[in-house]
Amino acid sequence: MAAANARVLHVMCTVFLVVAFLSVGVGAWSIANDSGEGGVNIGAGILLYFGYLLGAIGLALGVAALVTGAVSRRRSLA
Question: How many DSSP H helices and E strands does the chain contain?
Fold first, then answer.
């Protein structure tokens, strides 16, 4: 059961990090290609913040997956 939990956490970590990478990339691209009008900067800033937040959650899920995997391996050896 714990190995399945680690696998689910790993998949969630990967999904969160992929979405974070894509949203930060699109947000940074839209800020870099700004036409000088203010509307794009607001949306890009929100998208960048959302991407950073998802990246932090993805990293936390990755750490949780590593800990869960290590604990389940240690329990199976004992």
Answer: 2, 0
Helix (H, G, I), strand (E, B) or coil at 78: coil
DSSP state of 33: T
Q: Give the residue extent of every domain in the chain.
A: 2-77
CA 61, CA 59: separation in Å to the nearest integer? 5
Coil, helix or strand for 25?
A: helix
Query: Tokens for 29?
Result: 């691209």
Query: CB of 23 within 8 A of CB of 51?
Result: yes
Tokens 């329990």: give the residue.
Answer: 75
Q: What is the pLDDT of residues 4-35, one digit of tens each?
A: 888 999 999 999 999 999 999 998 888 888 77
Conformational region of residue 32, where left means phi above 0, alpha means psi within -120 to 50, and beta covers everything else: alpha
pLDDT, tens digit (0-9, with 9 covering 90-100), for 29-54? 888 887 776 666 888 889 999 999 99
